[in-house]
Amino acid sequence: MSTTKRMWSVIWLHALLAMVVSGKTLRKQKVCVIGAGGAGLAMIKELASYPNDFEPIGFELNADIGGLWIYTDNGDLNEHGLPTRSAVYKNLRTNAPRVLMAFPDYQTFGGENRSCVKHETVLNYLHNYTEHFNFRSHIRFDTFVEKITRVEEDDWETTRWNIHAKDLNTDRSYVTTCDVVIIGNGGNFKPKIPVIPGIEGFRGQIIHSHGYRRPEDYANKTVVLLGAGTSGIDIAIDLSPYAKKIYLSHRHDKIEGKWPKNVIQVSGVVKAKGNQLELQNGSTIFGDSFIYCTGYMLDFPFLDESTDITFTDKYVEPLYEHMINAYHPTMMFLGLPTGYVITFSVYHIQAKYYAAFLRGKVQLPSLAERLKDAEIPEGEPRDHRLKEGQWAYYKRLADAGGFETLPDFYREGLAVWRINQQADWPHFKDNDMVLEDGKFVIKYPKRNA
Question: Considering the entire predicted model, what is its pTM?
Answer without folding.
Answer: 0.91
